[in-house]
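Need residues for this backbone.
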């Protein structure tokens, strides 16, 4: 633990410092506090950091630099610090007496800062391990002795203005009167191709970004794997309103607010996918012969990716609803978020069903065209079958065929062929095959 006392007197002096209540004994809580102080001192000691290769690499690497910010608030007061420059003094500090919640946000993942926070707030080693391995975690909720941990995978619209445009177009198309054209029905083939290129894979939504939450009594720590502030602007906007419900409640309601903002980011993505599906359907109707069916398959993968993202998050919220940490009004709001996720999943399922219908309709149309071609070829073959038979008969190499000596035999042959073909066509008409 880094304790090195050369004499009994030094050790007794150390015990006196640890024994805060001066009872002569060291309680378990006092022992934990002492260990906490020792480990924190080590993690802020340059010599100790240099002796640890992994921690030293984090300090020297610019790529692993992190930014800390904090918001402390109560119903009638709020204080925000962004960024925190004096990291050591902040980590050693406690929540002000006037604040009901301290929210610490960390942008970027750094082993050294993660260890400092884990020691200061007694984070479970398994939770810290999940934090430091952001590429392999599914959304989950775990309850530990000192805190609870949530792992989320946040997705954001890539270009908000573009996504918002197609979201509005999709909504408008759902409520058009039958006699009116939807925004997609008036698009030309060139216009559709141009717009679909804007919604290619990777242009609609960002890759999942891990968001880790550590929830304690009066303290919430959030760690995101990159410095993109797509969520925090909406959260801070709610916090800076004095009558906001977030300010009136504990950390549990702040957790709900973060989940609500994460789910709100999915609505425009799902409805933009609906707009893309309508454009693909319109393009197929304009040029079905040369339509590339692989575009539907690629688009289905996009929808399934969003759907697979929703399911684990909904399972996490289900665990929160049954947890003892979330009660009263917060449960009602969590149930509302859960319902929103269910609606988005159902919308994705509808998109997938429509994709399957398009593929099935495309294949049926192609099969119908092939059947029509085969049908026409069969009729033509049936009409010319007598001609083939007579040609074969009179093309035989027998030395004597009487009809070959007739002066008008050639014209008689054509007359017979025309009459036979006409009779066959008339027969097909009577059978309604033509």
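Answer:
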């Amino acid at each position: 633990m880094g304790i090195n006392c050369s004499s009994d007197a030094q050790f007794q002096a150390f015990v006196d410092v640890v024994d805060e209540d001066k009872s002569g004994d060291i309680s378990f809580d006092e022992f934990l506090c002492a260990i906490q102080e020792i480990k924190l001192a080590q993690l802020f000691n340059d010599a100790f950091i240099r002796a640890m290769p992994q921690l030293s690499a984090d300090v020297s690497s610019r790529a692993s630099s992190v930014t800390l910010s904090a918001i402390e608030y109560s119903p009638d007061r709020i204080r925000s610090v962004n960024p925190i420059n004096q990291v050591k003094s902040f980590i050693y500090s406690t929540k002000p007496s006037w604040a009901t919640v301290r929210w610490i946000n960390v942008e970027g993942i750094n082993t050294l800062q993660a260890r400092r926070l884990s020691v200061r707030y007694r984070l479970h080693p398994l939770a810290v391990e999940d934090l430091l391995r952001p590429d392999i975690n599914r959304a989950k909720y775990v309850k530990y002795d000192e805190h609870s941990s949530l792992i989320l995978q946040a997705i954001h619209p890539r270009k908000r203005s573009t996504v918002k445009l197609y979201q509005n177009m999709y909504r408008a198309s759902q409520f058009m009167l039958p006699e009116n054209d939807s925004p997609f029905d008036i698009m030309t083939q060139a216009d559709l191709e141009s717009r679909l290129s804007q919604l290619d894979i990777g242009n609609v939504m960002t890759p999942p970004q891990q968001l880790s939450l550590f929830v304690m009594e009066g303290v919430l720590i959030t760690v995101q794997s990159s410095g993109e502030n797509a969520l925090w602007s909406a959260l801070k906007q709610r916090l800076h309103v004095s009558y906001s419900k977030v300010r009136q409640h504990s950390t549990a309601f702040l957790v709900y607010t973060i989940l609500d903002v994460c789910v709100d980011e999915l609505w425009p993505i799902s409805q933009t996918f609906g707009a893309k599906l309508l454009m693909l359907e319109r393009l197929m109707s304009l040029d079905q012969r040369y339509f590339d069916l692989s575009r539907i398959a690629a688009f289905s993968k996009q929808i399934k990716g969003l759907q697979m993202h929703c399911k684990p998050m909904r399972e996490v919220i289900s665990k929160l609803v049954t947890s003892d940490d979330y009660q009263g009004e917060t449960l009602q709001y969590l149930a509302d978020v859960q319902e929103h996720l269910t609606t988005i999943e159902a919308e994705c399922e509808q998109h997938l069903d429509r994709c399957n219908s398009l593929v099935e309709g495309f294949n049926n149309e192609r099969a119908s065209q092939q059947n029509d071609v085969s049908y026409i070829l069969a009729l033509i073959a049936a009409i010319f079958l007598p001609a083939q038979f007579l040609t074969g008969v009179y093309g035989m190499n027998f030395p004597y065929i009487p009809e070959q000596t007739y002066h008008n035999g050639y014209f008689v042959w054509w007359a017979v062929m025309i009459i036979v073909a006409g009779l066959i066509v008339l027969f097909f008409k009577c059978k309604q095959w033509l």
